[in-house]
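question for whoever is on the cluster today: can someone run the full assembly for these? two chains, 354 residues total. i dont have access anymore since they changed the login thing
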Amino acid sequence: METSPEELVETERIECWMREHGSAVKGYLAGILRQHELDDLVQEVFCRAWQHRARYEERGHARTFLLRIADRLACDRLRQLRQEGGLKERLCSSLGLGNDKHDPAHAALHSEAAQQLHVALARLSPLQRRVLLLRYFGQLTFEEIAGAIDCPLNTTLSHCRRGLEKLRGQLRGLAP
Amino acid sequence: MTNDDLLQAQLEQATAPGREPAYGCDAETRRLRETWIALGNLLETTSAGDLGPAQVVRQKASQQSKRFSSVTWAVAASVLCMAALAAWFGWNREQSSVQSAPAIAGTSEKQQPSNESEATLAIDSEATAWDDSLDGELLSLSQAASSLDSSWRTRSNRLTAVGDALDEIEQEIQQGTF
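^ ran it for u. tokens below:
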């Protein structure tokens, strides 16, 4: 099957997006999911971007478009992890086993900075985390963030402020 | 201006892109800004290089090198096949000449002693005569092998060039000159 010129242009665009926004998408996903083995999810984001490229034409900003997709996928993955976590916990308690401290996700957090970030982000609620990370990685406006997380603007602003206040003590000394 | 508008303005200042501290703002905005910068530093430290352009290009380069190695294996396999075929044809020919030797001996024993040398010579020449059909077959086979080999070489050269170009791009991206 031959590739049409339009498809080639689209493919080049997606490749360009991967170069320009790949690290932001991965950073966002890592922040939300607090995991580092995310290559499959990053690829899924770009696959979805390719499938829904017609919607991008309507909306405009590539990074916003990609981070919205990443946000939805991250929420799905979180839900799935929670279900799996609950199941694992029930299974462990029924078998009389403790929680596995040597989880690959824990092992991945090898560096001090990653550990510090992990602890800091763990203090935030999922919505606070999403607001702050969408703002950081996507540089989305608060109206866009409100649209992405399906919250009213004033609630979004509150999440942002409370999130920053929670982080204040945790991250003291890291500012220049 | 409502409280929400004030909060939005404050947060927009505090979470603006860049690393500049919020000079000329109230103490609360400055504190939020410091926290934001600290978070940014941490996120940058931990996510830098995770999936930058270099890694994307590296993935492509590894795909190309995988293709290149499969082509190399295919060329090596085809050359081995050709060598095996050539050896088989050669061995077949040798076998046919070895089998004809006892036949020559048997025939010459039955013949008259006076005709012995002539008959042996005739059969010898028959046994060692070159089979033209086999020659043609070998020729066409070797031509096919050489054309296959040259086409594989052309393809592998192209892939090498693509791989080199990707390596250069990767280096440029790593050096920040891309």
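summary bc i know u wont read the tokens: DSSP finds nine helices and no strands in chain A. Chain A touches chain B through 43 residues (CB under 8 Å).
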